[in-house]
Amino acid sequence: AYNAISVAQAGSGRPPWTRSCRSTETASDILHGIDLSGQLIIYTGADGNIAGESTMALAKANASLILACRTSSKCEKVRQQIVATTGTMALVEVEQLDLSLQTSITDFVNRALAKHPKIDVLINSAATYGTFMTHDNLVGAMEVNLLGPALLTHLLLPALRGHGRVVNVAAAAYDPPFISKSTTVASLSAVCTSLNTTLNARGGYYGLSKFLMVHHALEVAKREPTVTAVALAPGVAIDLPSIPNWAKHALVHLNYPEWLLKWLPEAFQHFIKACTTNEAGLESCPETLAQGAGVIVAAASWPEVSAYSGSYYDFDTKPLPDDAPNAYGRWTQSDPTCMPRQPAQMDETLREAWYDEMLRLMGNAVNPVHDVVDRIII
Q: Fewer CB within 10 Å, N or C, the chain?
């Protein structure tokens, strides 16, 4: 059964959650008045569209940044733009990181820790829709979006413990593909090591990887009591020309006749459907890239987040009827965001075992107890 997504309750000594942000607010709006001097943030996929807005806003708030990209030259362009725009005197470094290659991840960690034994925030943002097979013989979307970040996080934990924060940029996966009561560690492993044609035909790899990224953060929070780990969904954000939010809302919500709708560009049709169904309650839809970046910088910077480790940040989400039109699934969202919510559920025993399996797939098994048990059983 699909349940409405509610604000996570305070409790266990947590103070009440009192902050939020709206789809109309940009990353710079949310960081206004916040000084991140002395904070070192690693941002993967830093050449991405939303990432560019996030890193720019973080630099304006005086954060030090390590921009990690598969292609270093792309991150170098981002670095130059940040320095030219902000005039920041804080550190802004570029590092090569290919999350589809285990050796690249370990090399990156070795270089980063040699220079920076203390890291304040890791933002796992890099992602791909691609279902190519990587050099590690894993499905691209699963290694880049999930398994690679899991290994990266694990290897950076010594520099994060006691003070640090892990922020997983996920997606609104409330009807996660492939996940059911019969899902096992073996079946999840199988869709990583070989292409599942049924899942791929439905475009489900991206959604599955992002759903599992949410639960990776929850498991890190459970295992690492001195590290804050959270996940979030940035919403539907695209590169838009400057247009007032009210005008964009009016344009998207016009009652287009069917014959006219068919003549509109396919991408525009998609966003009309998304913004009038799944995102119908957002004041700004689609969001600009700077607006989509808002929840990311909030999760990375707000002090209150530390008391809510193991939480998921998203808009208020409610179920849609099974037969209701939708672009992404049987749910609909409304403002505000930047609030801890209850994500779609995953069996806790499965989540725990899957965490260990992810690291095993990436050549870094971490639970010798499980290994001993396996040998005894065999």
A: N
Per the confidence metrics, is the pTM higher than 0.90? yes
The answer to whether residues 294 and 26 touch, using CB atoms and an 8 Å cutoff, is yes
| Cβ atoms < 10 Å from Cβ of 137 | 11
Q: What distance in Å separates the CA atoms of residue 203 and residue 186, rounded to the nearest whole number?
A: 21
- Tell me the C-alpha to C-alpha distance, in Å, between residue 167 and each of 22, 120, 371: 19, 11, 29
How big is the CA angle at 329 (ends 327 and 333), to the nearest 5 degrees?
Answer: 85
> Where does 292-357 show beta strands of DSSP type E?
312-319, 331-341
d(CA 166, CA 299): 9
What are 14's two structure tokens? 């947590």
Which two structure tokens, joined as six digits, stand for 87? Answer: 């005039």
Helix (H, G, I), strand (E, B) or coil at 222: helix
CA dihedral 38, 123, 318, 211 (to 10 degrees): -160
Degrees, nearest 5: CA angle 41-47-49: 105
Cis upstream peptide for 286 (omega within 30°): yes
| pLDDT tens digit sequence for 97-137 | 999 999 999 999 999 999 999 999 999 999 999 999 999 99
